[in-house]
């Protein structure tokens, strides 16, 4: 599969994943704002491995969706439409995402 197809499919998949991941984010935000006890509950919950993994996953899909979206907008302006530059921009977007996702994981688990 060409890099441009991988990047485009990954952008769509992360969009769908964001829809579902935001249910956790909205719930945690709502619960944390409901009362001091709710805030403490969410604060304690966020120390668990599962919650940190969900937070990292949400960060990872959001970061790729933003990176891929910026790439698509640049292409909509007429850039990176040739095969070589399109493949290069797709590979760069995916590589940048991997770096950002790893750094996000380090930040969340530190």
From TrEMBL:
Keywords: Heme, Iron, Membrane, Metal-binding, Transmembrane, Transmembrane helix. One of its GO terms (biological process) is tricarboxylic acid cycle. CDD domains: SQR_TypeC_SdhC. It is found in: Membrane. Heme binds at residue 65. The heme is bound between the two transmembrane subunits. InterPro entries: SQR/QFR_C/D, Succ_DH_cytb556, SuccDH_FuR_B_TM-su. One of its GO terms (cellular component) is plasma membrane. GO terms for molecular function: electron transfer activity; metal ion binding. The chain crosses the membrane at residues 9-29, 49-67, 88-109. The keyword Iron applies. Belongs to the cytochrome b560 family. Membrane-anchoring subunit of succinate dehydrogenase (SDH). This is Succinate dehydrogenase cytochrome b556 subunit. It comes from Pseudoalteromonas luteoviolacea S4060-1. The lineage of its organism: Bacteria, Pseudomonadati, Pseudomonadota, Gammaproteobacteria, Alteromonadales.
């Amino acid at each position: 599969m060409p890099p441009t197809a991988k990047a485009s499919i990954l952008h769509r998949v992360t969009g769908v994943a964001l829809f579902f991941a935001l249910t956790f984010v909205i719930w945690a935000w709502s619960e944390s704002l409901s009362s001091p006890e709710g805030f403490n509950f969410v604060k304690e919950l966020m120390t668990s491995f599962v919650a940190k993994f969900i937070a990292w996953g949400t960060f990872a899909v959001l970061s790729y969706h933003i990176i891929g979206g910026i790439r698509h907008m640049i292409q909509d302006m007429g850039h990176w439409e040739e095969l070589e530059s399109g493949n290069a921009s797709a590979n760069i977007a995916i590589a940048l995402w991997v770096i950002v996702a790893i750094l996000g994981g380090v930040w969340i688990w530190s």
